[in-house]
Design a protein that fits this description.
With about 120 residues, this protein is mainly β. The protein has strands at about 5, 10, 20-25, 30-40, 45-50, 55-60, 65-70, 75-80, 90-100, 105-110, 115-120. The strands form two sheets. Strands 2, 4, 5, 6, 9, 10 and 11 form a seven-stranded mixed sheet that branches. Strands 1-3-8-7 form a four-stranded antiparallel sheet, with no helix packed on it. A hairpin with a 6-residue loop joins strand 4 and strand 5.
Length: about 120
């Protein structure tokens, strides 16, 4: 069974930092892009950052400079380093990846989400 599992969320004070991790497991032939999205209450899910298998990255404009995405291809993991967190960063953060399962089966997969709450 192919799955993405996030970890690292939690409660943090404004100005603090968190590091999210996401691990892909199961019978996976290869991984294309990996990324993070977030969804705050009452809002649509939005892209936070994404990274290709070659290491090229994109970020939501409003998050550049505070968030850093990275990946470990050997361990099939993607990370999101979040610094100087603000209350408006509070959301459920979802891992997303383009997975190639077999020569004929591929698609975008989602993790179950991890809650990040920024509050004093």
């Amino acid at each position: 069974q192919v799955q993405l599992v996030e970890s690292g969320g939690g409660l943090v004070h404004p100005g603090g930092s968190l590091r999210l991790s996401c691990a892909a497991s199961g019978s996976i032939k290869s991984i294309d892009h990996m990324g993070w999205y977030r969804q705050a209450p009452g809002k649509q899910r939005q892209l936070v950052a994404a990274i290709t298998s070659g290491g090229s990255t994109i970020y939501a404009d409003s998050l550049k400079g505070r968030f850093t995405i990275s990946r470990d291809n050997a361990r099939k993991m993607v990370f999101l380093e979040m610094n100087n967190l603000k209350p408006e960063d509070t959301a459920v953060y979802y891992c997303n990846a383009g997975l190639v399962i077999t020569k004929f089966v591929s698609g975008r997969y989602w993790g179950q989400g991890t809650q990040v709450t920024v509050s004093s």
